[in-house]
Specification:
This protein has helices at about 25-35, 40-55, 75-80, 90-95, 135-145, 160-165, 170-180, 205-215, 230-235, 235-250, and strands spanning about 60-65, 80-90, 100-105, 120-125, 145-155, 215-225, 265-270. The chain is α/β, with parallel strands linked by helices. Mean pLDDT is about 85; it is low at about 1-25.
Length: about 270
């Protein structure tokens, strides 16, 4: 596996329907639902939805959502035919969840389900906030059925936004979301940004290596430009231009194909 910052892998089972042949989710509907600006983040999520619609069994599914607030990143077709168990350590997040059939106030690092409990596990914008990622991942792997999938969405600690987040205080993250990104409710109970730890396993290459040692296969990986960039360009164009210029300059000193603006990633793992 290369360490390119933009690695895009898709492996579809032989004989499975082509994802393009299925009805694609509406980009406009998904964008409005998730409050995502147009760009690479939305494009990758649409492709993730196509893969999940193709690869997951066409039956009632059992899903574990590790960190479950008010928003689901699952395809609507998958959500409609699933029993979702959402686990979160934050009471406000649990209270705001309206789509899970079962909600548990608990810690994904220590909570354990019986083996072979779930067809699919989703952990989206959560791992960066977890101090003991290895413990959380081990729990995921143990509770997943053979042939099951795990979707992880997270920021890359080695991107420009990841480095800034890691080495600045939480109050600065709240200020940035409110005054640069334009999210006026940032930092209120149940609202991002949340305190960030950035365990080393959140780095895509290390996450992939750890999953491989545990016997899981990567079927999709995509690093993409953080949605914070298009949000900045919309709300603070001059500031965004400075950040873009800084990013271009930094990229000149990095190996080819690495772009420090690709601050987020999607990874889909399969348990053979």
């Amino acid at each position: 596996m290369t360490k390119s910052a933009a690695l895009d892998l898709v492996r579809i089972s032989p004989g499975a329907p082509d994802p393009a042949s299925r009805a694609k989710p509406s980009a406009a509907e998904l964008q409005a639902l998730l409050d995502l600006p147009p760009g690479e983040a939305l494009e990758s999520l649409l492709l993730v939805h196509e893969i999940l619609n193709t690869e997951l069994p066409q039956r009632r599914l059992k899903i574990y959502e590790a960190g479950g607030g008010s928003t689901s990143f699952l395809p609507s077709d998958v959500l409609r035919r699933s029993h979702v168990t959402a686990v979160d350590i934050d009471e406000d997040q649990i209270r705001n969840n309206t789509y899970a059939q079962e909600t548990i106030l608990g810690d994904i690092q220590t909570l354990r389900f019986p083996p072979d409990s779930f067809d699919f596990i989703i952990c989206y914008n959560v791992l960066e906030h977890v101090p003991y990622v290895e413990a959380a991942l081990t729990g995921f792997f143990q509770s997943l059925r053979r042939g099951g999938l795990i979707l992880i969405g997270a920021p890359n600690p080695r991107s420009l936004s990841g480095v800034v987040t890691r080495y600045t205080p939480h109050w600065f993250h709240v200020w940035f979301y409110r005054h640069v990104v334009g999210k006026k409710n940032a930092g209120l109970p149940g609202e991002p940004p949340f305190p960030t730890y950035f365990h080393k396993l959140v780095t895509p290459s290390r996450l992939e290596a750890f999953a491989g040692k545990s016997g899981l296969q990567v079927i999709y990986r995509k690093e993409y430009e953080s949605p914070r960039y298009p949000e900045m360009r919309d709300h603070r164009p001059l500031f965004a231009a400075l950040i873009d210029a800084l990013s271009v300059t930094l990229n000149l000193f990095l190996p080819r194909m690495i772009d420090v603006r690709r601050g987020d990633y999607h990874v889909i793992l399969r348990k053979p």
